[in-house]
Amino acid sequence: GDSNIWRLETELPRDASVKYRYLICSVDPTSGNVHVRRFETHIVPRQVPIDLAEEEANGSKEKVQPKIDTLGDIDGNTKLDKGWLTTETIMQFKFFDNPFSVKERLKNRLLYVKITTMNLRINAESQNVSSLQEESLSNDTRENGTESMTTYSFTEVTSLRNPSACYEQQSQFGCPYHKDDFLIYNVTVAEPENVAYLVDLYTYSSKSKEDEPPYHLGYHYILPNFLKKSEGILELPVTCASKHRPLGMMRIEYLKVTPLLPSRCTLERSYIRYWNKRWTGLDVGHRGSGTSFKASDGNVIRENTIASLKKAVAHGADMVEFDVQLSKDLVPVIYHDFDIYVSLKRKTTLETNDMLELPMRELTVEQLRTLKVYHVVEGRNREAKFFDEDLEEHQPFPQLAEALDQIDPHCGFNIEIKWSQKLKNGRMESDLNFDSNLYVDCILRVVLEKAGQRRIVFSCFDADICTMLRLKQNLYPVMFLTLGVTSRYPSYHDPRCNSIEMAVRNAYATELLGIVAHTEDLLRDQTQVNLATERGLIIFCWGDDNNCKDTIKHLKSLGIHAIIYDKMDIFSDKAVKESVFLVGARDSQAALLQQINIENRYEQTNQHDFLNDKDVRISLNKSGSSADPVLSTSTPSI
């Protein structure tokens, strides 16, 4: 009815507590599959206690008033987050870098973009060939669509031009695209192979009155066969809505996010936006114990190896940061660069023709471990730096699964997903031939299977990979790595990575945990820290500037939640070389033992009171009736 209160009666076990969460879900009418739209993410879920019928047990006849819960709110703490994909797919369409090229007379007009889903599934019983032809020849691109053309879908849009950007349902005439804007449409569909997307453009006439709606300028249909890859760029003609002639062109970049199957996620727990207030100024070991191919002092361990990770842990790292990418046989391995050098033949000295540069992705994990492989720096300088391959823990290319198994579980992992991006000059960092959905799924499966209770944070410089990581699972948080304003590295094609301001807006809209900012940009303008924290986002920082005790101390004073730096053994000022998560686990264990002790004492007291009360009743019975049997013990029969 009109009430905003939902009720449910169900049977629950009386002798067990029942934990539960509320969620908003939609049900696909065709398949019956349940899709989670939003769900409660409090660390401690709601609970129906064991003593639900306590009043009844105590003989109370007063009717217990039902408790009314508020969705997302537990004791004033609101946690209601975007769901994850179960069987549905999200098609994301992005409009940025001034994507419309229209006739001169329309160039200064504000264009409104609307995306509508169209069902391509042909129902033989209700449609024949002639009716389909009539439909396709219709002069109207949207308004005359029949009921049979509607499809199960949700369309949400956000503009990163807005500092408080968040996804909302699109309005009747879509969302305006302003100059240098960044529009993102998320369209959730159940059967992507049977859905087309109608892109409508609206604008206001120069002669329109104040209360007059915009008129339909042009349109284009995006068919599913255009969207077979996980990402791509579409250059599409715009057809005039009234004369059906070419009006101009538009460029749309798309991303397809498919569910991780089989799904391993439940409502039991979720850390996607959880960060304890005590976790501030954390020390994070960069590639374990630091970058080993830039150092000149020689006192280093090979980066991104089990030995390097263990050394950082031994010197008190709260977390270790490392890079993960896939081998040719789809095994997640820990390595930073996209390329490697392979020795063509064994010699004691290295000559120019001794090495071949290859993309790392072209070798299987077995080949990476058995061939004589050199780091890019070693290969380009023709000078080997490490001769410790005979030591197992110093081997390059450890598998992600090995790190999860072998590193102290109280040390958190900041897992950076390596993915080649397009630079602003149009070049790719590396020509990856992996499908991005497959790539992310292979890494997620290992983490979800092996992580256990370890604190995990994912990060990536690619905003689309961050979106995938966030939408494919509901357990681990994701942070957006940002380049920011820098003189040290080339800018990316995607503007979301090129400034802290844009990174914050994207992270906030996508409901990520936060951003990993470049310290060079943070030190240029320290007020940028507030851009993240005022939005409730967590902020880490990375960069060569962090390799200085004074800088680390200063960054901690700014309220940075974690600092990623080299050489934990030199730059860490920790008196006790322990992870904050180990200390937290010990405190939790002590609190748990204390609680158990209190409960035990409480039970013993109640037992003592009960026995005394029984003794009194037995004594009264004895004095009241000589026929009562004499009990040899005061212990009650059970």
UniProtKB/TrEMBL annotation:
Hydrolase is among the record's keywords: yes
Similarity comment: family membership: Belongs to the glycerophosphoryl diester phosphodiesterase family.
Keywords, comma-separated and alphabetical: Hydrolase
Protein name (database record): GP-PDE domain-containing protein
InterPro entries: C2_GPCPD1, GDPD, GP_PDE_dom, Ig-like_fold, PLC-like_Pdiesterase_TIM-brl
Superkingdom, natural source: Eukaryota
Domain GP-PDE: 281-575
Gene Ontology annotations of biological process type: glycerophospholipid catabolic process
Gene3D superfamilies: Immunoglobulins (2.60.40.10), Phosphatidylinositol (PI) phosphodiesterase (3.20.20.190)
One Pfam family named in its UniProt record: GDPD
GO molecular function: glycerophosphocholine phosphodiesterase activity
